[in-house]
Amino acid sequence: MSDIPTMPSIAKVIPRQCFTRQTSKSLAYLFRSILIQVIVVAIGLTIPYTPSMSLVWIIYALVSGTTAMGFWVIAHECGHGAFSNNRRLETVIGYFLHTILLVPYFSWQRSHSVHHRFTNHITEGETHVPLVIGGNGISEQAGGEEEIAFSRSIGKVAFGAMQLLMHLIIGWPAYLLAGKTGGPKYGMSNHFWPREPFSKKLWPSTWSKKVWKSDCGIAVVLIILFNWAWSFGIASVLTMYVGPLLVVNCWLVVYTWLHHTDSDVPHLGEEDFSFMRGAFLSIDRPYGKILDFLHHHIGSTHVIHHIAPTIPHYHAIEATRAIKKAFPKVYLFNPTPIHKALWSVASNCVAVKADGQSSRYLWEKNLN
Question: What stretches pass through the bilayer (predicted)?
Fold first, then answer.
């Protein structure tokens, strides 16, 4: 693993100020996202709840969900300790932001920390862990042969479309409720219920209590939504909240999927895996100025985020430039436009297979 930089060598090339957190600056970015969302919601309140305005409401959901994704990113920074040195303030903000998006904050914080520790690990990874050709279902994700056969029987276009639908619409709730795409080590986990009949492996020690604390916030939000629907009608909730939330969830899946999946990016077994090697298997992509602005550069600075997740997003651009210059052979950036990259991953990345020379697992593509 001599080709992978060590943390001390990385710390030498990243400017020291990149590791500092400024509460006032983080709050300023939060208020910016709030201001943008207030404007979008104010516009939404002027749209009538009539069938003839259905297309307008779809457009509204796309816009409002895209702007609201900024809250998800800030809550994500809170979960990593990148928002502020004031841990109580950071936890309150992260808990509130994630809870209003129906994300169980502490449950996610735990599973996401596992994802960071074992990025692209074939058995202990925690998001978008692929099916394995020859996997036994205990130490690896079995079912790769069946998935390859199925993808080739229906063709690349149909398989890609199905993958997009399953990932973007069903993927996030399926992960929260049943641990789908998580590694086999943790079994069928549930982010709301840390005990049987679900696996308890993801919630050691006091984390199970924190899951219940997350649930309390989610319950409050659900009660508010019920009262909202009761007072103002279900159409109001569907158009102003549910539609945009579905778009937020889609953005979340797009980012996590494309951060850690590409046809030439391997997954690793125990012999080849290390934290730093996994971190450098993250992929930066070109999301453009508007999305980078709204989403605080989460997609274009993700490699450095995996290397040093406590670096706040407003220093991540500078830190990314530093590692890109210092370690060009291992830094991954794919310039493919996002819509093309998403289709390529959905239609080509079916299952992985051990390469036979090491514990690297390479993608077996859909050749149809």
Answer: 29-49, 55-75, 87-108, 157-178, 216-235
Calculate helix-pair angle for 54-80, 87-100, nearest 10 degrees: 160
> Which residues are bridge partners to 267 per DSSP?
361
1 within domain boundaries = no
Q: Which secondary structure element, helix H or strand E, spans residue 353, and what is its range?
A: strand 349-354
> For 196, left (φ over 0), alpha (ψ -120 to 50), or beta?
beta
**Residue 205 is assigned to a structural domain of this protein:** yes
The number of folded domains in the chain is 1
What lies within 8 Å, CB to CB, of 67 at 6+ separation is 33, 36, 37, 40, 294
Which token pair is 345?
A: 């991953």
Instruction: Tell me which residue has tokens 């509460």.
Output: 23
What does pTM read for this prediction? Answer: 0.94
Beta bridge partners of 333: 284
5 vs 330: CA distance, rounded Å: 9
Max distance between CA atoms of the chain, in angstroms, equals: 64
Give the whole-angstrom CA distance, residue 101 versus residue 131: 29
Which residue, among 239, 212, 256, 186, has the nearest Cα to 49 in the 3D structure?
Answer: 239
One pLDDT digit (tens) per residue for the chain, 368 residues:
468 999 999 999 999 999 999 999 999 999 999 999 999 999 999 999 999 999 999 999 999 999 999 999 999 999 999 999 999 999 999 999 999 999 999 999 999 999 999 999 998 999 899 999 887 666 667 788 899 999 989 999 999 999 999 999 999 999 999 999 888 888 899 999 999 999 999 998 889 999 999 999 999 999 999 999 999 999 999 999 999 999 999 999 999 999 999 999 999 998 899 999 999 999 999 999 999 999 999 999 999 999 999 999 999 999 999 999 999 999 999 999 999 999 999 999 999 998 876 688 999 876 66
Nearest alpha-carbon partner for 76 in 64, 93, 94: 94
- Which domain does 210 fall in, by range? 7-365
> Under a CB-based contact definition with an 8 Å cutoff, are residues 361 and 122 in contact?
yes
In a domain, 211, yes or no: yes
